[in-house]
């Protein structure tokens, strides 16, 4: 009786799937790290106008978002169709903007405050009056760096 | 008494659980970044300012009205022509003597701007103007500046201004080269400073 028995050649051995969880976990961690969850739910219509002379807003943690536009359809019963401003999760009035900017500044580290940018995400059908009011409030709050957030595309298509 | 062996936990479903989480994060991930037109607002200055007198020919007045019509110097203009008109105005270089502009390539029309440093574009809008029309005009005017800056930059340094600016804002770009880049950017910016004034809406 030999000690080294020949294996009975019974077909191909099954491939071990023991490392499958490891691979999946690796992918999982990757996506967990790169995920940025939407922290605000939009309550206004927000179709951005198109432009092509744009700059990227890279550092998301240094951006304050101000949304404006008509209330979304499900809120129109309650709030009408007049354009409104949205800060964080709720509708706000023009006079709330300064407070909002100060709160945002408080929440950031002091040395980063000068780099803060305000991104204006304004629906393309909004009247400029509201935008001018927002701009005026931002000037009062000395948040002078702004960015009109746009879609990528030829700006001429806004005129169609 | 022999210790009973704890039964082994079946790890076969671990992959399923991990997949479930993976799919959740796949769905919620947004990698794209926002982009837009960056502008700087003028600070509010309470001190009395002397009115700076600008010559009429150095001002390029653009008014966007409620219906989105563009009025340049009180004359109706199509959006498509706006960029070219702004370029012609900025690069006109009609000044004489110490106002002369040696790098301008415009028509040197004495009724248009003296030089790009003096030239101001004044953008006005009404309160009823639609935001999309305003952005279009902003975009075209910024484009006009970018065209001129790119041209000058290509002439001097054989590289696009927008490319230089992009490299400058890129944190990966080597630090030691940034000083040179900054110097070049500033030269171009001095040649064609962006003087885009936005007036408060009139109506």
Structural description of this entry:
The complex is a heterodimer of chains A (160) and B (203). Chain A has 160 residues and is α/β, with parallel strands linked by helices. Chain A has helices at 20-34, 73-79, 96-107, 128-140, and strands at residues 50-51, 55-56, 63-69, 84-87, 90-92, 117-122, 145-152. Chain A is 29% helix and 20% strand. In chain A, strands 1-7-6-3-4-5 form a 6-stranded mixed β-sheet, covered by helices on one side. In chain A, helix 4 links the parallel strand 6 and strand 7. Chain B has 203 residues and is of the alpha/beta class. In chain B, 39% of the residues lie in helices and 13% in strands. Chain B has helices at residues 14-28, 79-90, 131-157, 161-169, 175-191; strands at 35-40, 59-64, 70-72, 75-77, 120-125, 196-198. In chain B, strands 4-3-2-5-6 form a 5-stranded mixed β-sheet, with helices on one face. The longest helix of chain B has 27 residues, at 131-157. The mean pLDDT of chain B is 82. At the A-B interface, helix 1, strand 2, strand 6, helix 4 and strand 7 of A face helix 1, strand 1 and helix 3 of B. Strand 7 of chain A pairs antiparallel with strand 1 (35-40) of chain B, so a sheet runs across the interface.
Determine the structural class of chain A based on helices, strands and strand pairing. Answer: alpha/beta
What amount of the residues of chain B lies in strands? 5-15%
Task: Please indicate the percent range of residues of chain A in DSSP E strands (runs of 2 or more).
Answer: 15-25%
Report the end-to-end length of chain A measured between terminal Cα atoms: 90 Å
For the biggest β-sheet of chain B, the strand order reads 4-3-2-5-6
Number of helices of chain B: 5
